[in-house]
Amino acid sequence: MAGMQKNISSDVKNISSDVKKSGENGNGLILYQNYQSYFCLKVVFALHEKKLKFKSHVIDLYRGEQFEPWFVRINPKCEVPVLKDGVKIIPDSRRIIDYIEDNFSNGDTPRLLPEKGSVEFQQMGRMRDLIDNLPIGLVTFGCIFNPQMTGRIRLSNQEIRIRQARFAAHENLLTDLSEKNKEFKDHYLVKKSGLMRLFKLVTDSNEVDKGILDVEYALKEVEKLLVTHEGDKKKWWLCCEKFTTADISLCVLLSRLHQIGLTDIFFKDNKLPHLQEYFKRAQQREAYKKTMNQGDGILNSFVCLDTKEQMFVAVGSVAVILAAAGIATFLIHRNK
Ligand SMILES: N[C@@H](CCC(=O)N[C@@H](CS)C(=O)NCC(=O)O)C(=O)O
To answer: Where are the transmembrane segments (predicted)?
Structure first.
C-alpha cells in the first residue's frame, strides 16, 4: 500500500489542516469515519440528532488506512469511529456518543437521555446494552458469506470473493506492518489475530446462526417493550417521549438488518408489528435521512463495493464477455 509509506510528519500536518478547516465553519469536531461503518453511523446519527456540526475525515477501511501508523497513534485498535475535539481524541462509538452527550447538551442541543435516575433512564440503559452487545460483525459478514442464510443474495459471487480476499489481504498487510513498524508490532499482531478469529467465525454457519438468534432475541425484547406503549405513550420512542441513544442503537441495527436481508425474515408474516411501525416512523426523522445519505448517498450502502472494486467487477465482466465472443468467433471460423 503506497499510502502506508507516507511519513508520520506529513500525516500530522494532514490532521492539523483538517482541524483548521473544520474550525472555520463548525465547532472543530472531526470525525474519523467510514460511511459504511455500523459504529460510525451511530455517532453520525447522534451528531445530527444533536444538530452538531462536524467535519468527516473518511478512512478507507478496505485499503487498510486504519493500519497506517498515523492512525494507530490515534487509535491503537485500528478502528473507526474516532472523534477529535480540539486536542482531545475519543475512540469507540459508545464513548463518543456519551462524550458529546456530556459536553454538548445546552439550550439548542437536544439531550438524548431521559432524566437521570428515572425508570425510563434505567430502561434506556438496559435496551442500549442489549443492542450494543449484539455480534453485528459476525452477523453482517456471516450473512454476506453465507447468502443462503437470508435467502436474498445481495452480492454476486465475484463480489463475495473480493470481500473474502480482503480478510486475507489485511492479514498479510498486518504481518508486513508488524515487521516494518516495531513500535506498533503488538497492536498489529493483536489486530491480526482478531481478524483471523472473526474470519473463522463468519465462515462457520453454526456460529452465524447463533449470532442471528441473539439478534432475534433482542428484537423480541424490544417488541415486548413497544407493546406497552399505549394510551398517552402512543407517540413514545423506545423508552420515552424523547429520541434517546437507545433509539440510535436500534435504528442503526434495523437499517443494517434491512441491508443484509434479515428484516425479510424477522418481519415476515407481520411478525414484530410494533417494531415495524417504529422503524417506519424513525426513518422519517431528518437525522436518520441525513445519516443514511451522508456522502451524498454515494457508496454508503453497506453492500456496495467501492468505486475501484465496482470498476474491477465491470471490467472483469466485460473481459469475460469479450473473451467468450472471441472464442465463439474462433470456433465458428475453425468449423467453417
Ligand atoms: N467498539 C468499537 C468498534 C468499532 C469497529 O469495529 N469499527 C470497524 C468498522 S464498523 C472498524 O474500524 N474496522 C476496521 C478493522 O477492524 O480493520 C466502536 O463501538 O466504535
So the answer is: 311-332
Contact indicator for 82, 89 with CB cutoff of 8 Å: yes
Return the residue whose CA atom lies nearest to atom 18 of ligand 1.
92
Which long-range contacts link 143-151 to residues 24+ away (Cβ below 8 Å)? Answer: 143/208, 143/212, 143/260, 143/261, 143/262, 144/260, 144/303, 145/202, 145/203, 146/203, 146/205, 146/208, 149/205, 149/208, 149/209, 149/212, 150/260, 150/261, 150/262, 150/264, 150/265, 151/261, 151/264, 151/265
**Closest approach atom of ligand 1 to CA 37:** 10
Question: Ligand 1 in contact with 62 (CB < 6 A)?
Answer: no
Pocket lining: 249 vs ligand 1, CB cutoff 6 Å? no
80 CA → ligand 1 middle, Å: 5
Pocket probe for ligand 1: among 39, 59, 74, the residue whose CB has the most ligand atoms within 8 Å is 39
Q: What is the pTM of this model?
A: 0.84
- Name residues whose C-beta falls within 8 Å of residue 132's C-beta, 6 or more positions apart in sequence: 94, 249
Query: Which of residues 121 and 107 earns the better pLDDT score?
Result: 121
In terms of phi and psi (left: phi > 0; alpha: psi -120 to 50; beta: otherwise), the region of 48 is alpha
Over the stretch 27-52, which tens digit does the pLDDT of each residue have? 699 999 999 999 999 999 999 999 99
Q: Using an 8 Å Cβ cutoff, are 69 and 11 in contact? A: yes
State if residue 134 touches ligand 1 by the CB under 6 angstroms criterion.
no
Task: Give 128-138 pLDDT, tens digit per residue.
Answer: 999 999 999 99
Does 240 contact ligand 1 (Cβ within 6 A)?
no
Grid cell 439548542 is found at 108
Q: Which residues pair with 82 in a beta bridge?
A: 32, 91
Residues β-bridged to residue 90 = 83
pLDDT tens for 136-191 read: 999 999 998 888 887 665 677 888 888 899 999 999 999 999 999 999 999 999 99
176 lines ligand 1 (CB under 6 A): no
